[in-house]
Amino acid sequence: MSRAEGTTGRWIGAALLSPTMLFLAATVFIPVALLLAASLNGPSGFSYVSFERLVKAPVYAQVLGHSAFLAAAAASVSVLAAFPVAVGISRASSGWRQLLWIGVLLPFWTSFLVRTIAWIVVLGRNGLINSTLQQVGLIDQPLELLYTNISVVIGLVHVLLPLAILTMVPVIESMDRRLVPAAWTLGARPGTSFFVIYFPLCAAGCTAAWLTTFVSALGFFITPALLGSPKQTMVAQVIIQQVQEMMDWGLAAALALLTLLATLLVYWVYDRLVGLSSLAGETTRSEVGHAMGGLRNLKAAIYWTLGRWTDAVLRRLPQRDHSEDQRVPFGALIVLAALTLPVLLLLPESFTSSSFIDWPPRGFSTRWYEDIFASPVWASALWRSLGVGVGAAVLASAIGIPAAFAFAHHKVPGRSLLLGAVLAPVILPRIIVALGLFYVLSKLGLVGSSVALAVGHAALALPFVVITVMATLKSYDRRLDAAASVLGARTGARLTRVTLPIIMPGIVSAFIFAFGTSFDDLTLSLFVSGGLFTTLPKQMWDDALLKVSPSLAAVSVLLFLGVVAVMALSYAARAMLAKRRFA
Amino acid sequence: MFRDSMSRPAGEIDGRHVAATQPQAPAVKLRISDVSKKYGDAFALRPSDLDIRQGEFVTLLGPSGSGKTTLLMMIAGLVHPTGGDIWIDGRKATRQQPYERDVGMMFQSYALFPHMTVGENIAFPLKMRRASPEAIRTAVDDVLHQIKLPHIRNRFPSELSGGQQQRVALARSIVHRPSVVLMDEPLAALDKALRAHMQLEIRQLQQELGITVLYVTHDQEEAMTMSDRICLMNEARIEQVATPSELYFSPRTVFAAGFVGESNGFDGQIEAMDGAVARVRLSFGHVSGRVIGATQVGDSCKVMVRPEAVSFTPAAAGSGHNVIAGEVTSHVIAGAIARTYVRTADGQVLVATELTRRAGAAPSGRVEATFRTEDTLVYGGES
User: Fold this and answer.
1) Selection from A389, A329, A422 nearest residue A29 by Cα
2) Inter-chain Cβ pairs, chain A and chain B, closer than 8 A
3) How far apart are CA B170 and CA B160, in angstroms?
4) Angle at A78 between CA A238 and CA A468, to 5 degrees
5) ipTM (interface predicted TM)
6) Contact residues, B window 57-86, toward A, CB-based 8 Å cutoff
7) Do B158 and A288 touch (CB under 8 A)?
8) B6 by DSSP, 3-state: which?
9) Residue A66: which region, alpha, beta or left (left: phi > 0; alpha: psi -120 to 50)?
10) Which residues of chain A have pLDDT under 70?
11) Domains located in chain B, CATH noted
12) Residue A322 has what pLDDT?
């Protein structure tokens, strides 16, 4: 490549990337920086007073510590449960694979709130488990399942599990499928081939999934608020409380800073141990770097021992056939059933005639649905959510798609750093990003504006757009561009006639992803919307804080059916497209 | 478990019976007996038999879908046969798990463990057989010398070139001295020059160490270069098992003649039979040739002649030569050999090849192409 060409290439990359960078600077980086600066902003200029208060009252340290504990527990359970699903997906025949993907994506797209409300039905004092156990006669008094550490962890896991699976699958699928058969032919029994070969190669995916879910959980407030007692208060709840009830920006900002530092610390440790590049789905070479390390030897010794023990146990069990793996992925099915079934319980619950969501539902009535359809509040919330969602998706796509082109097809100086910057809205706990935006918007007097909310959602959705379109472009054959140019197409014609039609499925999923992010967001909406100006999740949240009623179950059912309908449509559209292309 | 099968005397000749007149053939290391594989109603491999003896290099050669990889996978234990039995080193292995079989395997993608160093990769099969640390160290050192890469022990596979990875995969498949080493198109990913080099190197190492190898390839030149015997496969069946020269000069079927080397092929009808020699009427003349398989006068048949058997030097009548008149349409120098295309009276094409020469006139115009009766093969309707 000539020097002139190289330079233009770089300029094109920078030009494509600049809208994204400017947008993120305005919506994420500068607001978060201003927010963090506010933590050092006392009544009369610069002061440490907020931090002093943080340190003096032990409750804050307790909350932070307990948040980390709950997040770590939830992340660990999520990774353990996600592993069989990810393995199942990577090994299943194409029929099973589709079914398993539906099982992952359906809960993934179902609102956080819906999934959390479903667990109230299961775990409540008069919920499914208690009433069943009482009926069977195993217990006399209902167990206290709800408002405990366990209920909060279960709720967090339900929210995080699909994310963990989505993080793990690409890593597991990038593994050479011949490695385990190769180990067999070299004499490795099933236990050894699993622990010495298969598992270490999945480990990067597992740790990446743990990290992603941990950081995500650290910023949650919905689950601990609805499924936990004051003991399970998490740091995001305290931050919200400080801002909304105490109007104490200094303390909120100081807490946000601590949360951010904790997050960065976890990332730093991860980078030392595994390497951050594995997060973006790129292969790690860190094992190579640690070839001689004592840690590596220790890990190997543990894997070998586990393998030998497993083999010793398996030898005593009846032999199974490993040659042709066409078995039913039972482990994956069980986990996915546990994800979906609680949500399905909301359906009978929404037709109850009682005004409590006890199990089993009493009588039959459609009054909750009638209420919803008659109420102007729900209708206006729905329309606002749809409008904001479409606006955010359009904006995020318009800004993010060129950035994806820049990363995938052009030389970008400082690529990994810039890619990290683009991912910032998902890498950082959402509460911090949302709080930063709220801080700036409140200074600008823009709180309560639909446009401001859409812009904020676009920032949250931007990473998903860039990643999704990048993934599509990765498999795009660039020789097609060359062919189009040689055949006489100028840049515009090449894009509209060749490139865009081919990557359209990726763009559509990016758009849906962005829309879903906005439609489901409560964190930013919590701050920015309010009063008559409310989105659907905000309306549900306000209701749920008062009382989890059957009308919420009805709204949840409608939302769930909406997700099912959208997924069915997208599958049908894809099937039709595939048929036309390859017929 | 770590058995040194190579220290065993070839042929297992019993020391007390040295006077025995007939030296026994080397032991059968691998026996395929009536093995078949069906997926649904379709055969991936029809019932087949094959014996491989100690120290032999046998190649499964055939187009894709011919069943060669299926057979290899069944021997490795990665696919279960529908019928028949597999014997490895005298033991029935049909129902054994892959890790219970005494085989080594080299995969097309090498399948080196990316998280282990070269040394750890090679030590893996020894470790699985519970060899002592000293035995492992010595064996790994030895095999690294044998593949001429003693210095890469602590590197990771991702740090090696394609050729180096290939050699490490070879080392890993032979280090535990298995009864049979299975190789699944291991050279397919290498460029042409390196491939030619590795063919010789693998063959040399195999002969030096006396390893028994079953090799899979779709490249007939590779099969001819490396093998003691070639097992030619087509449409889920074994077509012919023979040494390279047998396969080349006496292919048993039209498919074998066409797949291995180049061939001219013409349809004809048998006019007369004289023992193993038939006189055939073609659309542009008559030829005589050796009959392969059962056939009789009046049958339609196919006549095959290798291009290098065809020449343009006039042959004396009655010298056992066939003569076909035609016109040269083109003469092409393809490198070491030159091809002459001759159009027969009714427009069919006959190809003749000879070594390329700097001087001398290329054949042109009307010519008489001659080839010997014994180089002319006549296949009856069935083959």
Assistant:
1) A422
2) 85
3) 14
4) 90
5) 0.82
6) 76-80
7) yes
8) helix
9) alpha
10) 1-10, 42-43, 275-293, 319-327, 530-532, 581-583
11) 5-15+23-102+178-254 (3.40.50.300), 262-379 (2.40.50.100)
12) 52
